[in-house]
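Predicting holo structure, cobalt (II) ion bound.
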Amino acid sequence: MSSSVEVPASDTGAAHPLEPLSAEEIGAAVTLLREQRGLADTVRFSYVALDEPDKDELDAFDTSGAIERRAAAVLIDRATGTVSEAVVSLTEGRVTAWRDLDDVQPALLFEDCFDAIIAVKEDPRWQEAMRRRGITDFESIQLDPWPAGRFGLDVEAGRRLTRVLSYVRHDEADNGYAHPIEGVLVYYDFHSGQVVQVDDYGVVEIPPECANYDIEHVGALRDDRKPLEILQPEGPSFRVEGHEVLWQRWRFRVAMHPIHGLVLHTIAYEDGDRVRPILHRASLSEMVVPYGDTSPMHAWKNAFDAGEWGLGRMVNSLTLGCDCLGAIRYFDAAMATERGDPYVVEKAICVHEEDYGILWKHVDMHTGNTEVRRRRRLVVSSIHTVGNYEYGFFWYFYEDGMIQHEVKLTGIMQTMAVAPDEQPRYGELVAPQLAAPNHQHLFNFRLDFDIDGKTNSVYEVDVEAVPAGADNSFANAFVTRPTLLARESEAQRLVDPARSRTWKIVNPSRHNRVGQPVGYKLIPGSTPTLLASPDSSIGRRATFATKNLWVTPYSRDEMRAAGEYPNQHAGGGGIPEWTAADRALDDTDVVVWYTFGVTHIPRPEDWPVMPVEYTGFTLVPFGFFDRNPSLDVAPQEHCAHD
Ligand code: CO
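Done. Tokens:
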């Protein structure tokens, strides 16, 4: 029995240009595209989403209330491979922009993947490879299509390609990743609908041990967990208007984008009588999972889970009292199926409050008086299942002006079968005859700062020791060394824990009461960058992951760190392409691109399902406020001293 309660949706949603498209609007956009473009039966919708208004449009809305509702769509004709980008004005009832592209590949389609699975199972070469391994029940085999990458191979030329991996399931609910079928790699062309190549690199015994983790399979459950209930008898402290969330001094808008996933807009803090903007837009821009094994079965494995799969399309429908506890307000997400039918993922975004220990405390040693305040945070989250893996994206807002993002990684690792006496060089054993290759999960977040206005500057701030000398006779001194990142070529940076390196985003024309420009600091976590060579295929395609921090001037079309179409892309798209112009960054509308993540050396404890691993970053106010902004948080009733 759960004490969690769902906070009902209110109907007070005022029309706003950043409200996500409703299911009705998605349906209307698809109808207009069909009517006005005469779409062939073979055309599929990669995505349909709000065509987000530019900042000028939002400024105009603030003064005039004028809204043009527009949908952006990417379509692909399965028969010809032609990709089309369209903009539909729902306000005007017409398609206002259309562009055909012949040399790009949008994210994989579910329909294509289902067709690939059917075709592979009917392919005599694959069937023969299975028989060589003693497998005759093809129906029970799990097939996982993967983005194919791009390695300059003949098989890739002119094809919309996937590579397909095979796994044994002993029954329908069996965990297939416990039984990888090593050695068999299938290439399937979505465009022609043909299996184009079946490679067999040799038989390795299929790991026999099952690894299921549901309550039927894990033995006796521990019985020493007493109930822990979250009670909010008066409901939550936030309110919601449309997709805007207002909590204490914070306000922002939430949305679920089919590619980027969870998106926050217009993050602002109410400071006295001013509503002070901090971030115009914040979301994942791309992510990549490169694998470090050299064998032909695994060396090609990379997944751009945003651009190659559509992270937002993979969003979970959450369950009350399981994914979040307390008084929960959910947001549904409206999307389009690949055939253009609107549908709604219920409970796609969770908003709730959490107690988070103490906010601040001091005991006055003279009087014995104690002042202590409890800290709360507002949590906005979504969880996405991409094949074997789960990614949770959690934004936290705190009462002292801090904002934090945390990615929670869980689910099941990629696996490979190894001979009984084999120690894998590029991975770790996680169970008998079963290894998981070393890999990385690298996330790039696009952070469009608008601190107290659009024009901001970015500084790298190192802390360094001062050499001993006449002015440092105790040899104890250390100073901050701020460096303005004045151009794009100077704003391609790495973390440096030995120098306590942070990056500070300031508004140079707004100052606090001690004369500092108001700002926020990006505090990196311990984070790797891409380990693959920059000259490798993945190094060229995921250049964003070779640095932790990039800064660009705002441009409406620059949204995804590896470009709009990373699937099968030769490389060089996105950040390396834009920053080649070496644009000026000082006192302008800056966008910060921050790459972080984990290098995952698999553990036996990560098997068969991974306990959540965390990675992320923190944004703290640095001179944004004149003093601790959380002094006005009231004490708990019984903690107030009299
Ligand atoms: Co991992």
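The CA atoms of residues 511 and 517 lie 4 Å apart.
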